[in-house]
């Protein structure tokens, strides 16, 4: 339960594995999100799958949507759950909209010491804070939905000192490759971009390279992560 709203978490992998919080895109738990979860489970991670579309829609009404502060607080609850499941600090991985939410969450002052970093897959600059059925039109128009939005490029500097890794398709039809490049250059902390020659937002035609780069990105984040100093 997040502030009185029931959310369904999908757990993949073994309990001793290093924890990953994986947030899907605004299409729900389909396509790339379950692929990533299964891949990481096979590599020994424990994945907590979070449906970004279900989350957004559960807090969207005719008069209200989420606020940035709501997102940070809700992810803090997820991180507390994940932190009890492994020895290493959780990594936030997000697909599309889920990547935007993960970056936003990582800017929270109280969250930074609790996670190792953020990995964004197919991350665009503008991300929504609400979701309703009318917004499905974006899958045909390739435009942003008519919801309150936040700019990742504008807030990514506040992710410092956490590392940020982005994996992007060169032919992404929803989030231009230039978005990822601008976001990486706007970051003040460690940031790295992997660009993959794939045909679309789902990395079709080159999922094998995507899989390799994702594992590489996790290793890079854990290497760059500087744990908060402990008090004597």
Quickly describe the structure.
By secondary structure, this protein is an alpha/beta fold.
What would you note in describing this structure?
The protein is of the alpha/beta class and 232 residues long. It contains eight helices and nine strands. The strands form two sheets. A seven-stranded mixed beta sheet has the order 1-3-2-4-5-8-9, sandwiched between helices. Helix 1 links the parallel strand 2 and strand 3 (46-50).
Computed CA radius of gyration, to the nearest angstrom: 16 Å
Helix content: 25-40%
Give the number of helices: 8
Q: Whole-Å distance between the termini?
A: 36 Å
Shape annotation:
globular
Strand content: 15-25%
Average pLDDT, rounded to a whole number, is 94
What order do the strands of the largest sheet run in, or round the barrel if closed?
A: 1-3-2-4-5-8-9
Describe this protein with a few key phrases.
single chain, 232 residues, alpha/beta, 7-stranded mixed beta sheet, two-stranded antiparallel sheet, 8 helices, 9 strands
